[in-house]
């Protein structure tokens, strides 16, 4: 991938206007393709799965997002500790990992699925 980035950078800085324009266009496509999906975040708890808007979830802090999610599943008064795990875009094995709620705003764009666990 690094080699491709170098090739596109060289093409974009070409003295040939057509080559430079193509290089800039390909760079824009590469950047656009690297962004995570703008689709909803799927949240699982037990046998229920709910889709919540990524934009709304991304605007919250991690702690507020977790309270919001718990509220949607009727878990605000849960007596057992609850944890949030996620599948992250680009993670090869697709396994759930625990989320650092303090880094929520940075992580939220890359979350594919969330799972509430006890």
Number of helices: 5
CATH class of the largest domain: Alpha Beta
Main sheet specs: 5 strands, mixed
Cα-atom Rg, whole angstroms? 20 Å
Distance between termini?
40 Å
Tally of structural domains? 2
Taken from the alpha-carbon principal axes, the silhouette is elongated
Helical fraction equals 40-55%
Count of beta strands? 5
Q: Quick check: average pLDDT?
A: 85
Q: Which band does the percent of strand residues land in?
A: 15-25%
Let me know the CATH homologous superfamily of the largest domain: Phosphatidylinositol 3-kinase Catalytic Subunit, Chain A, domain 1
Computed structural class? alpha+beta
Descriptive account of the structure:
This protein is 42% helix and 21% strand. It has 118 residues and is an alpha+beta fold. The protein folds into two domains: 33 residues; 77 residues, Phosphatidylinositol 3-kinase Catalytic Subunit, Chain A, domain 1 (Ubiquitin-like (UB roll), Roll). Strands 2-1-5-3-4 form a five-stranded mixed sheet. The termini are far apart.
Features:
42% helix, Ubiquitin-like (UB roll), alpha+beta, single chain, 118 residues, 5-stranded mixed β-sheet, elongated, 2 domains
How would you sum up this structure in a few lines?
The protein has 118 residues and is an alpha+beta fold. It folds into 2 domains: 2-34; 41-117, Roll (Ubiquitin-like (UB roll)), CATH 3.10.20.90.
Task: Give the arrangement of secondary structure elements.
Blueprint: H1 2-12, H2 17-34, E1 41-45, E2 48-52, H3 54-59, H4 62-72, E3 83-88, E4 97-98, H5 104-107, E5 111-117
Parallel strand pairs: 1-5
Antiparallel strand pairs: 1-2, 3-4, 3-5
Helix pairs in contact: 1-2
């Amino acid at each position: 991938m690094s080699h491709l980035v170098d090739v596109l950078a060289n093409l974009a800085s070409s003295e040939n206007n057509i080559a430079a324009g193509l290089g800039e266009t390909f760079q824009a496509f590469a950047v656009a393709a690297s962004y995570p999906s703008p689709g909803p975040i799927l949240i699982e708890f037990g046998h229920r799965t709910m889709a919540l808007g990524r934009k709304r979830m991304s605007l919250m802090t991690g702690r507020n997002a977790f309270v919001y999610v718990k509220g949607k599943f009727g878990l605000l008064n849960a007596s057992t500790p609850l944890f949030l795990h996620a599948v992250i875009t680009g993670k090869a094995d697709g396994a759930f990992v625990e989320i650092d709620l303090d880094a929520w705003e940075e992580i939220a764009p890359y979350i594919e699925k969330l799972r509430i666990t006890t």
